[in-house]
Amino acid sequence: MRKYASAMVQGGLRLTPQRRQVYEVLMDKMDHPTATEVFIRSQKRMPSISLATVYNCLETMVGSGLVKAVHVDREPTRFCANLQEHGHFHCTECGHISDIEFSETRGKGWKLPPGFLVTQHDVTLRGLCANCGTPSKTSNHSNANHSNAKPSTK
Ligand SMILES: [Zn+2]
Ligand SMILES: [Zn+2]
Q1: Count of other CB atoms within 10 angstroms of residue 38
Q2: Which of 30, 66, 84, 87 could form an S-S bond across to 123 if both were Cys, CB 3.0 to 4.6 Å?
Q3: How close is the Cα of 97 to the center of ligand 1, in Å?
């Protein structure tokens, strides 16, 4: 409930009513809205808020790591308040962006040159979501169960 408050404090931000409003909008529906969409939603609850303020709040929160900016080619930046380490899956057909759990810890799984340190990662996968993929080929469970056939305990 008061998650945003502690998250703000952790991010070293002053909890202004506008920031709270913008953050609440992002937490409310994790559908990666654009700044304009955040503005429209914020305005419903706080009619005095301006688009410039919303931009400002978003920029500040991205800067402090409270919110992720998601860049998808040729589209306006979208915003994500999911604080879990995650990547994004962009469906090129319907444009939907889903949060994808990322099991590797930062930088692991990439062949980094010696001395390089990952402080943040921003991974966007592209492809087709379940709704847009070919429905006739859904019987492919290749990665459903990866365990070795059967443990021969006897
Ligand atoms: Zn799709
Ligand atoms: Zn996300």
Answers
A1: 24
A2: 87
A3: 9
E strands along 63-153, which residues? 68-70, 78-80, 86-91, 97-101, 124-127
SS3 132: coil
Q: Which ligand is nearest to the CA of 132?
A: 1
Block residue for tokens 């979208």:
78
Between the CA of 56 and the centroid of ligand 2 the distance, in Å, is: 20
Write down the pLDDT at residue 2. 57
Given this model, what pLDDT does residue 104 score?
A: 64
- Ligand 1 centroid vs 131 CA: distance in angstroms? 5
Mean pLDDT by 10 residues, the chain (154 residues): 67 85 93 96 96 96 89 88 86 91 69 86 88 66 44 47
Residue 130 has what pLDDT?
Answer: 94
Q: Domain limits of the chain?
A: 3-130
d(CA 67, ligand 2 centre) in Å: 9
Q: In what order do the strands lie in the sheet with 86-91?
A: 97-101, 86-91, 124-127
Give the global pTM: 0.71
Ligand nearest the Cα of residue 72 is 2
Please state which architecture CATH assigns to domain 3-130: Orthogonal Bundle (1.10)
